[in-house]
């Protein structure tokens, strides 16, 4: 699983202005050279942060996607999708 790459690219959206612009313009093209699974690419381009979180992506880092309105996300959609994730008593996602 390449969830590390998902976490890293979320951090790069914050730090790398050129990458952020590329993600805003054409996420599929910006993601093409990265070591991601097909499912991760699909979930990222769809802005499905809930499923990415279930797969182990970091919720704090994914918030950068919403902060900079990448992959069709904004604060409202990010919060809706993350709140839909069921978690156990220690905050870990459950099925």
Topology:
Blueprint: H1 3-15, H2 17-25, H3 27-31, H4 38-46, H5 49-54, H6 59-67, H7 75-83
Question: Any overview of this molecule?
Answer:
The protein has seven helices and no strands. The chain is 63% helix and 0% strand. The mean pLDDT is 93. The protein has helices spanning 3-15, 17-25, 27-31, 38-46, 49-54, 59-67, 75-83. It has one domain: Orthogonal Bundle (Protocatechuate 4,5-dioxygenase, Chain A), CATH 1.10.700.10. With 95 residues, it is an all-alpha fold. α1 crosses α2, α1 crosses α6 (59-67) and α6 runs antiparallel to α7 (75-83).
Which structural category do the helix and sheet elements fall into?
mainly alpha
Specify the overall morphology.
globular
The CATH class label is Mainly Alpha
Topology-level CATH name: Protocatechuate 4,5-dioxygenase, Chain A
* Strands, count: 0
Concise structural overview:
It is built from seven helices and no strands. The chain has helices at 3-15, 17-25, 27-31, 38-46, 49-54, 59-67, 75-83.
Supply the key terms.
95 residues; mainly alpha; Protocatechuate 4,5-dioxygenase, Chain A; 63% helix
């Amino acid at each position: 699983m390449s969830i590390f790459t998902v976490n890293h690219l979320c951090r790069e959206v914050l730090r790398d202005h050129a990458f952020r612009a590329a993600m805003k313009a054409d996420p599929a093209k910006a993601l093409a050279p990265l070591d991601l699974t097909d499912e991760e690419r699909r979930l990222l381009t769809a802005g499905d942060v809930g499923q990415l979180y279930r797969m182990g992506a970091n919720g704090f880092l994914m918030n950068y996607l919403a902060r900079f309105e990448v992959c069709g996300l904004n604060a409202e959609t990010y919060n809706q999708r993350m709140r839909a994730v069921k978690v156990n008593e220690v905050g870990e996602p459950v099925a």
